[in-house]
Amino acid sequence: MSVAVVDDRALGTSLRVVVTDPARLHAAKRAVDRVVREIDDACSRFREDSELSRLHAHAGREVQVSPLLLRALQAALRGARLSDGAVDPTVGTAVKNVGYAGDFATVAAEGAAIPLVVQPVPGWRCIRLNEVTRSVVVPRGVEVDLGSTAKALCSDLAARAALEEMGGSGVLVSLGGDIAVAGAAPEGGWQVQVAESSDAPLVAGGETVSIAAGGMATSSTTVRRWTRGGVALHHIIDPATGLPAGGPWRTVTVVAADCLDANIAATAAVVRGETAVAWLTHAGLPARLVSRDGEVVRIAGWPQPAA
Hints:
By secondary structure, the protein is α+β, with helices and mostly antiparallel strands. 29% of the residues lie in helices and 26% in strands. Strands 1-2-7-8-11-16-17-18 form an eight-stranded antiparallel beta sheet. It has a three-stranded antiparallel beta sheet with strand order 3-6-5, with helices on one face. Strands 4-12-13 form a three-stranded mixed beta sheet, with no helix packed on it. α1 runs antiparallel to α5 (147-166) and α6 runs antiparallel to α7.
C-alpha cells in the first residue's frame, strides 16, 4: 500500500499528514487545516482575539464557551485528574514567569537572568466548569494554558476529520510529534521513528516503532528551551514549584488509546520524575524514557530496537 505525505507548519510547530490513498491527500489536508484553525481560534494563549483570551478577560465571572473550548477544557482537567495534578492547565502565569510569554518564535535563545521563585500554581480544581450549561469560571489572577493537551486533542480531532473527509482508507496526523492515526493502517502499521524533536530528520537505522491505532506523543525538555543568566529553562512546568520540571527524564514517549492520553502520560512522566516508571508501568502504557545522560529505558511492552 503506497502512502502520500504533506508537511507544513501549524500552531507554532511542525505538521505532517500521511494518507494511504494518495488521491485523497489534499482532501485530508484541507480537513486537518480546518481543525487546526478552529483549535487556534479557541485555545491560543498568544492571540488576543482567541476565545481563551476572552475567557481570561472575564476572569471571576461565569462565561459560556463554545463546544470546542469546552472540550479542550474538559481534556485539560481530565489530564490533571489522571496525572494527580502533574499536568495542570493553571500553569499559564508560571510559564510566562520563566520567559515563555509569547509565541515560541519570539522567545530569545539567551537573555539576562530572571527571578525564579518557587510558587505552586493555583491548581486545576479552581476552574469551575458546568458541562450542562457549557459555562466556565476562571478565578481572577489565574491564567489557563491549554498548549500541551490542546495540541494533542487537535491531532486526534484532525485525524478523525481527515478520515471522514476522505471517506475511508487511513490517515496519520503529527503535530509537533503528537501523533494520531485513524482508519486502516498500512500493511505492517504506521512506521514512526522516535526522536526528541519533531523537527529531527529521519536517519537510517533510527529506532522505529509501528502503531496501527490510537496515538503516540513525546514530551521533552530538550525542545522549547532557552537560557536566562546562564540558567537553562524549558516549557514543561512542575505545578508543585511553578518552575521547569527538574527530574531525571529529558524525554518521554508514550503510546496510548489516543494522542491526548499519550500526551498526558508523557508530560506527567517528565514532571513526576523518579516515580514515572512505576506510574507508567501500573497504567500499562508502553513508554520510552530518556534520562539526562542519554540512558534509554523501555517499559510496558515498548519494543527493544532491532539488533
